[in-house]
Amino acid sequence: MHHDEKILPVIMAGGSGKRLWPLSRENYPKQFLSLDNSQNSMLQQTICRLNGIAHEPPLIICNEEHRFIAAEQLRQLDKKLGGIFLEPEGRNTAPAIALAAFQAIENSNDPLLLILAADHVIGDIDAFQHSIHAGIEHAALGKLVVFGVDANTPETGYGYIKRGAQCGSGYIVEHFVEKPSREVAEQYLLSGEYCWNSGMFLFRASRYLDALNEYRPDIFEACKKATEVQELDLDFIRINKSAFMACPNESIDYAVMEHTPDAVMVPMNAKWNDVGGFEALWKISEKDNSGNVFAGDVYHVDCENSFIHTDSKLVVAAGVKDLIIVSTKDSILVTNKSCVQEIGSIVQALKKNAREEVKYHREVYRPWGKYDLIDVGERFQVKRITVKPGAKLSKQMHHHRAEHWIVVSGTAKVTIDGKERFLTENESVYIPITAVHVLENPGKVGLELIEVQSGSYLKEDDIVRFEDKYGRK
Length: 473
Prior knowledge:
Layout: E1 7-13, H1 42-48, E2 59-63, H2 67-77, E3 83-87, H3 93-107, E4 112-117, E5 121-122, H4 125-140, E6 144-150, E7 160-167, E8 170-177, H5 182-191, E9 194-204, H6 205-215, H7 217-228, E10 231-233, E11 236-238, H8 241-245, H9 252-257, E12 263-267, E13 272-273, H10 278-284, E14 293-295, E15 298-301, E16 307-310, E17 315-318, E18 323-327, E19 332-336, H11 343-352, H12 356-359, E20 363-366, E21 369-376, E22 380-387, E23 395-397, E24 401-409, E25 412-416, E26 419-423, E27 428-431, E28 437-440, E29 447-455, E30 464-467
Parallel strand pairs: 1-2, 1-4, 2-3, 3-11, 6-12, 14-16, 15-17, 16-18
Antiparallel strand pairs: 4-9, 5-13, 6-9, 7-8, 7-9, 8-12, 10-11, 18-19, 20-21, 21-22, 22-29, 23-30, 24-27, 24-29, 25-26, 25-28
């Protein structure tokens, strides 16, 4: 066992989690949610799962628009971080891993990259760590390791790997197979020679780049160019946008793993689930005697094998069977378990109709805290705003709306046209149209206030920012 090998975990947190809408939204996708009633989000669990494996501070790869959520969740863990790589737009896994590999070679002496997805659930952490240790010996010898999961049902949502000859703790990969049809999946299962492709990998950074350069020089070049110019900003690493946008959209399986003769599959049977949709979520959740999973304020009579989740409203269900019911502040999903595959395409259709519900939750997270849109009318809207201790909103001005702020708890420091004042509980202040204003929380506890906006135009783009400590334009 090569104890001196450096492992650099690379956590891909770029997915949009469409199939778990309306829990998951474009601006707050599933990797940032806690889906199994634990305190931690899936991203946080992915990082905690590495405790016990000697590793460098992890590199996170995420989408530009999720940067503050990712940074906040990592801050809560209080762990050292190797940086947050920002992709201007997702380009699938082959380019994302290439960015990390170029970065790793630049920063240190060619570590082994452990590629993990931020949205997997793993029930058996010992088994997970055992497989990683087994993979190290192969990766140290220049192999490209993929972790395979025993196929125990004929899943059509996963890629499969055909096992070849055994070598040490793994198997030579005979070939990779894309998501099969139901009949084909059943044949795979019977043959006993196939396992699921978990989407987790381990290999030396330079080995991956060599293979990528051999099979997909176009991706290699685009990513090389993208990482040559970097901007550091807090923990964020920004790359050359135009170079990266020109990069083809391709998975590591297609780009590299299917072509390389050096692929080795190491088994990982760690109660793995990629929580692709609600049926998977129902499977991993604790059920009652009738096979139901209830979360939130649910009153139920005679329900069977159903998944009912509500985050605020009372949901009453009677005599339902095999249903998925998800109620959020702004949307309700009702579907039969057998139709959950449709959700991805339904979300696409809603997106085409420019539905805000696809992009945002009613609660929107910002680097300084969050806001919840409580009520909207013809010429007004009401928000509940929470500002973290020490945080400050940008210095801004609106052309079309006036605002009233009422403090519910905590202390607010408000500056309007250069005049400072402090507000505490039950006090309010009025900000006329075009007044330049700043709101900050000088205290040690959270600040909560109600904002009432009134005017002819209330969209978020009516903001002129003068200065912002979070670098937003």
